[in-house]
Amino acid sequence: MTQVRLHPAARRELHRAVDWYIREAGTRVAAGLIDNFDQLQSLIREHPHVGALVKSDTRRLVFKRYPYTLVYRLHGDVAEVLAFAHHSRRPEYWTGRL
């Protein structure tokens, strides 16, 4: 089974998004975002190559009900989440985290 770790910047992005949803849409919607995030983490743990290939070892998974993409890189049995990327941000802003 693959371990999932969050890059510190990705962790901050996730926290900011949850805080925003709590303020603007309520705790139920924010909890849905967290649930969706947990589902994607579980999917990566079980099937690390499931995400669409972005670069040689970098993959992405798109959230179902939220405008976010999870970008992760595989290192052996570890998947490092590089970005919790909002779809309105400039593409590939996270490449400096590789």
Q: Between the first and last Cα atoms, what is the distance in angstroms?
A: 23 Å
What general form does the structure show?
A: globular
What do we call the CATH homologous superfamily?
RelE-like
* Share of helical residues: 25-40%
- Strands in their spatial order, largest beta sheet: 1-5-4-3-2
* Rg measurement, Å: 13 Å
> What is the number of helices?
2
Structure description:
The protein is of the alpha+beta class and 98 residues long. The protein has one domain: RelE-like (YaeB-like fold, 2-Layer Sandwich), CATH 3.30.2310. Helix content is 38%, strand content 31%. The chain has helices at residues 8-24, 27-46, and strands spanning 3-6, 52-55, 58-62, 68-75, 78-86. The two termini are 23 Å apart.
Task: Write a brief caption for the model.
This protein is an alpha+beta fold and 98 residues long. The protein contains 2 helices and 5 strands; from the N terminus they run βααββββ.
Relevant terms:
globular; YaeB-like fold; 98 residues; single chain; 5-stranded mixed sheet; 5 strands; alpha+beta
